[in-house]
Amino acid sequence: MIRALATAASGMEAQQTQLEVTANNIANVSTPGFKKNRVEFQDLLVQTVRAPGAATSTSTVSPTGLQVGLGVRVAGTNRMHSEGDLKQTGNPLDVAIEGSGFLPVTLPTGELAYTRNGSFKLSHEGKMVNSDGYQLGGNITVPAEAQNITIGADGTVSATIPGNAQAAQLGQIELVSFSNPAGLLAVGHNLLRETTASGSPITGKPGENGFGTLAQGTLELSNVKAVEEMMDLISGQRAYEITSRVVKAADEMLAQTAQLR
Question: Which residues of the chain have a pLDDT value below 50?
Answer without folding.
Answer: none
